[in-house]
């Protein structure tokens, strides 16, 4: 059907198509109008147009390095942390060096003669070295060695027959006799041991002995109960640990009941021929009187005096000093006027200096009296010595 025109006329289909075509011609205008509206909208959003896009691009380029530097920003805390940790590493050695300096200063300012606990464990030899190089009398170490050795040579001429003043026939008898000689004289021991060894000649016999019977035999020696325990105990130890034989080593001897270094060196020096210094009461008194050392501990005296002499002379040196202390250089009244080493003695004058009065103070063979051994060596008898009387003799 046809359409009517606005003036009331009707239009055919063709005219309607033409009208439609006219409308189609006007559509590009509508499109243009739409495009212009879009451009206006875009300009409203970006007033600068293309320059804004360039600015946006440049801004994007500027932000790109920012993105690249972002890891640097993240790394910045690690750098700061490293900077913070760096002083800590530097200060740590500084603290150590400070403590080390304090320790060094502490060592430098340690008072002389003070022994720290660490030094006291280390071993006993350190005081020995100091003693050896610092004579108590103020003389030089060389002068002390020369004077000490000259004294020993003089005493060797005075006592060429010096020997241990205990009667013994084997190492076991010497060991037991030396243990019994504590707190008594060698004479009393020599008068007691014949009955003991006649009844108990071997370690096996004494180990199985009745303590009460042994006590009755040892009663004259004093401290007989303690000495009985010692001799029976060491006999058992010899049987159980050493096959009934007296060991020839210091380390083994000192493990026996009642045996110390002094007793061990007596046995080693006189039964086995191994050098050792016997530090008894006479030895201690004389070496201090002669100013060989000012030590009072037996072990330190042994080390100090041993440093003055060759090791091969230690056993004879012990005999010379002990014999001189028993015969001439007494504890209370030394016979200074009859002393053969008076010119070498710094303590000369402490005793009687008159020769005639000093001779009356001499003992044993030097004074014409019997010695301490019941069976002394022949050399002692040839030098005018006399054997000691047996127990109970007038």
TrEMBL record:
Listed GO MF terms: endonuclease activity
Cofactor: [4Fe-4S] cluster
Keyword check for Iron-sulfur: yes
Binding site for [4Fe-4S] cluster: 329, 336, 339, 345
EC number(s) from the headed UniProt entry: 4.2.99.18
Ion transport listed as a keyword: no
Enzyme class of the recorded protein, top EC level: lyase
Cofactor note: Binds 1 [4Fe-4S] cluster.
Function noted in UniProt: DNA repair enzyme that has both DNA N-glycosylase activity and AP-lyase activity. The DNA N-glycosylase activity releases various damaged pyrimidines from DNA by cleaving the N-glycosidic bond, leaving an AP (apurinic/apyrimidinic) site. The AP-lyase activity cleaves the phosphodiester bond 3' to the AP site by a beta-elimination, leaving a 3'-terminal unsaturated sugar and a product with a terminal 5'-phosphate.
Protein name: Endonuclease III
Organism: Streptomyces lavenduligriseus
Underlying gene: nth
């Amino acid at each position: 059907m046809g359409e009517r025109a606005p003036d009331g006329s009707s239009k055919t289909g063709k005219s309607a198509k033409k009208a439609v075509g006219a409308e189609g011609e006007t559509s590009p205008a509508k499109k243009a109008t739409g495009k212009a509206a879009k451009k206006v909208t875009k300009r409203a959003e970006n007033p600068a147009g293309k320059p804004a896009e360039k600015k946006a691009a440049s801004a994007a380029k500027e932000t790109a390095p920012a993105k690249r530097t972002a890891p640097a920003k993240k790394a910045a805390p690690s750098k700061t942390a490293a900077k913070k940790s760096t002083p800590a590493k530097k200060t740590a050695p500084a603290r150590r060096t400070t403590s080390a300096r304090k320790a060094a200063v502490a060592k430098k300012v340690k008072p002389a003669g003070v022994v720290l606990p660490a030094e006291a464990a280390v071993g006993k030899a350190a005081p020995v070295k100091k003693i050896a190089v610092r004579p108590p009398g103020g003389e030089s170490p060389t002068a002390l060695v020369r004077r000490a050795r000259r004294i020993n040579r003089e005493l060797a001429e005075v006592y060429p027959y010096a020997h241990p003043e205990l009667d013994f026939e084997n190492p076991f008898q010497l060991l037991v006799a030396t243990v019994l000689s504590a707190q008594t004289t060698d004479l009393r021991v020599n008068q007691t041991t014949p009955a003991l060894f006649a009844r108990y000649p071997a370690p096996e016999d004494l180990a199985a002995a009745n303590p009460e019977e042994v006590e009755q035999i040892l009663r004259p020696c004093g401290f007989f109960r303690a000495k009985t325990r010692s001799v029976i105990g060491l006999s058992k130890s010899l049987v159980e640990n050493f096959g009934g034989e007296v060991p020839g080593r210091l380390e083994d001897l000192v493990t026996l009941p009642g045996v110390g270094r002094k007793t061990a060196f007596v046995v080693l020096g006189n039964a086995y021929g191994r050098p050792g210094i016997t530090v008894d009461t006479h030895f201690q008194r004389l070496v201090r009187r002669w100013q060989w050392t000012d030590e009072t501990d037996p072990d330190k005296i042994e080390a100090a005096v041993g440093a003055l002499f060759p090791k091969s002379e230690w056993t004879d040196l012990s005999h010379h000093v002990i014999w001189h202390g028993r015969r001439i250089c007494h504890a209370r009244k030394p016979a200074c006027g009859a002393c053969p080493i008076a010119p070498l003695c710094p303590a000369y004058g402490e005793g009687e200096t008159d020769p005639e009065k000093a001779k009356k103070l001499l003992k044993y063979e030097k004074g014409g009296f019997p010695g301490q051994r019941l069976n002394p060596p022949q050399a002692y008898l040839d030098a005018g010595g006399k054997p000691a009387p047996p127990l109970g003799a007038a």
